[in-house]
Amino acid sequence: MAKYSEDTKLGELLDDPAAVAILDEVLPGATSNPMLGMAKGFALKQIAAMPQAGIAPEKATELLEKLNAQLG
Prior knowledge:
By secondary structure, this protein is mainly alpha-helical.
């Protein structure tokens, strides 16, 4: 079973420096967004569903694939 899924909370990713590096690689600038702190309790699928997040579905898939390939 994969370690990370669309139900993984953003805060869990931010607690792992290796996951933060992958997040920055796939979504440049994501971890420097001033709204980041308010989203820590949200699951990845919730964040990706928010139009203001600007995360294309293929980027969300790419993020999960890289997280699980490198850290899962």
